[in-house]
Amino acid sequence: MRSMANARLAKKYLTFYRTQPGGYGAGDRFLGVRVPVSRKIAAENVSLPLDQLRKLAESRFHEERFVALVILVLQFNTAKKEEERKRLFDAYVQMVRSGKVVNNWDLVDASAPYMGAYLIGDPKSREFLLKLVQSRNLWTQRVAILMTFSFIRNGDNRPTLLLAKRLLSHPHDLIHKASGWMLREVGKNSLSDLRKFLTKHSARMPRTMLRYSIEKMQKRERQKWLSTVARQKA
What we know:
Elements: H1 7-16, H2 35-44, H3 50-57, H4 62-78, H5 82-98, H6 105-109, H7 112-115, H8 125-133, H9 138-153, H10 158-166, H11 173-189, H12 191-201, H13 207-213, H14 219-233
């Protein structure tokens, strides 16, 4: 990866991922390796042992952490034994809670929607997700809401609706976008579930969250929700 470093692209990434002081990616470092190249490298090294994977995940370079997470997901998705899935999931949770690995939106989005599959059928999944979403760490909160994507794919909208409600008053745009995205996916399963949520909570929803959630609706209905909220807030 370091042999493929591109200083000009790395400089662009510093701006794109908001690495300036006070930015959500403050202090991060980049090699300047494009995502398709990183994914190709991950696929070519999918058998990397977990101890080496942990070392890669602790890299100071963003793209190397990205590759580690992609490999982890690939291994998790193909694991045959439950103990192996648990080992990989536990490793992922440790990475999340460290605050030093899964620490930007693309790293969350490349991992959480897939690793959440481990929680399906677990009676303690609700408690686990609520604990994550109550974290003070922005990325841990985003992991929590995006983990519910696995439940949506499995036909269960309840975890998403529960966490989205908890995040209604969140101050950060990246959480508004993630919550709205998951609500939009809920609507693909059940438009009535999404409409019920909007009926109860749209007046409190940040504008970005609302726009994301209604993106796939017909234009007339989108306008109805937006105009309704505008009147309520007037």
